[in-house]
Amino acid sequence: MTAQEVRLCGLLLREHFGEMVEKVGTHLLRNGAQNLRAICHETGISLDLIKKTLCVLMKHGFCMFSSGRKGPGSPTEYRASCDRILGILRYPRYIYTAKTLYGDTGELIVEELLQRGEMTMSCTVKTVADRLTQNMEEGRTMDYSEVTSAFGKLVETHFLQRRPPVVRSGTTDSPTPAPPATPKPRSTPAATSQPTPESFPDCYKVPHVTLIGKGKRRLSSEDGEDQRNAKKPKMEPETHGDEGIYWQVNFERFHLHFRDQAIISAIANKLDPTSSEIVRTMLRMSEVTTSPTATCTKPLSANEIFRSLPSSYNIARPILDQYLTLLVDDPMEFVGRAGESGGGMYVVNLHRALANLARATLESVVQERFGSRSARIFRLLLRKRHLEQKQVEDFAMIPAKEAKDMLYTLLSQNLVQLQEIPKTPDYAPSRTFYLYTVNQLQTSRLLLHNCYKTVANLIERRLFETKESKRLLEKSQRIEAIMASLQVSGAEPEQLTEVEEMITAPERQQLEALRLHVNKLDSAENQTDETIFLLESYIGYTVAS
Length: 545
What we know:
CATH topology of the largest domain: Arc Repressor Mutant, subunit A
Mean pLDDT: 83
Largest sheet: 3 strands, antiparallel
Structural class: mainly alpha
Radius of gyration: 29 Å
Strand order of the largest sheet: 1-3-2
Strand content: 5-15%
CATH architecture of the largest domain: Orthogonal Bundle
């Protein structure tokens, strides 16, 4: 874990949860697993506040706990997860993906779960239905069954999963449920272990939930029966059949979807939409049978692919064979034949595809920063692996002086490495070969580190811009609130115009410039995160294999 990662995690925690959560989170990231007493002593925060902060971190999956290093009976230790905290950057992408696949209902379900960390199904359905009802025309309501159906589809496709039960001193308890309106963190865990979703067999089992559908006829307050019931205090809380069963977003499933979309998009850009649709079909057929860490999908025959293609694509079987041959022969090697014999079974080379996408990203960065000639040298070293300076000059067809300057510039930026191969043990320069090379994995890690630094700088700049215009933004919000209340009360147009004129023309220009600037920063942050995801995926696959 680098200093830039800790810095970025701190900024994300401060922006979304406040300074106290940031202080405890960054402390755990820097110092590793610690118990409550050590955290309280080293941070100077009260024990009660430390407990509440840890509950917030654990509710969102940013902190894990386990038995102390001294064995059973020792104090429980807490450790923060850098990867999960950095996942906050991807929250807008998760929400947009859910909207694309399952519409507005799926979008709001994922948004609520990301905001609260964990929720019961009944609480999620009611909250989302109420939000959708507010956006509908007056007199219309959203039925609970529609939201329940969308929730079930998200679970069926594994985008949502149950939160595993907490093991406390050898027993398994479910977490304390949170109220629907203002979810509070669970009581301070005194657990000895924290199971993972993979070890939980009922991870995707949807419970039977009893909810009264929206739009049903209800007795009015004028009915005597309703008035008598209203005077009686409620003796028992309302139950729905899923008490203690909490749900969370399955980030790993979203990441697999992002990986597949990156591969499909690259094939569409390089070849054509039909080729990308064939690969999309192969990936969709292999979703269940392929392990998330597998380097390639399960083998599929041409007949299976042909039967699974969408009916809208009128592709004849001979044409499909030609497309598969084209994909196999493509230098990018996104699709390959299964086995050394090269029979009629095809696979999608996931690791090779990510490696090629990461290499294209590295080449693009070098070209943008150092020009096309430097990119030519970089690309040449990637392909040839090891070359002497004279060979680089000849193969790249660049004058000696320029090639030397470019190589030294790339070497100073750690984008190119120099390997010494001595002829004799004394490493004499006259008897040593000096070969230039590119280590793609090492260079990818360097670029990933720079991406973390870039995102942190973007966030700090956005916070600075917002702070500088804080007074003007507050004034604009107050005026918008006044305008909304006047419109609801049916005010005259002259009154509305008078309130609008409380913001002067220069202030409006300043607000518009601020809005455009913040939008650019947000867009740059999202685009950088796409590069981060691609590099993280490539590094993860390479290290695992």
